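With this grant's support, we have settled on a layout for protein records. A representative record follows, to show the layout.
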Amino acid sequence: MKNLFSTPIKLIPLTIVSILISQPVLAAKFKCWTNNEGVKECGTYVPAEYSQKRIETRGKSGRVVEVDERAKTKAELAEIERLTKLKEIEDAKIAEQKKKDEILLKTFSTERDINMLRDSKINVIEGILTVTNGNNKALKKKLEKLQKRAANSERRGKKPPQIVLDDIKEIQSRLSKNMMSIKSKRAEQEEIREKFAKDLQHFRELKQGKTTANANAPKK
């Protein structure tokens, strides 16, 4: 008897398929696919041109026993790779945040500890600013004296001594650098305040979450 599935055939009504596959010659599994015209075909083998499409393997009862999904396109594979990388980045961020949370809870026991460390860091910078401001006052006094000497020379119709001009230039440069340093240190203090404000808020959230989790935990 000729194998009815030796070549692809178009899908036929299930009742007819049931009659056909009831024959001993059709007892083996067969495969079904959709051709380029959108018509489902079945056969004992899949033509090469459809090998990358979705393939259903059916048993003698006609039911699907295995499915090979169609091969993904380059665009689909690229999108999968992109999403995979995004997930890896997100997972890394979550792991890093978890690590930071653990450090925060291990470093501080109470909110007071956080505030004390914040104030300590701010005060250290404040001490540096106090010294810098003191230096600026001394430099300004020295600058005033040098500028007076230069002005006196000019009033007498003489060019101020070069050493005086050089000292004036040097002091002005130091004052300018000190002012920039003061501005930078003030910004650093503000960054510390903002950072510790966030740490304090997050610390509260972690403590609250931990308290809530303990409260909801089943009692032994």
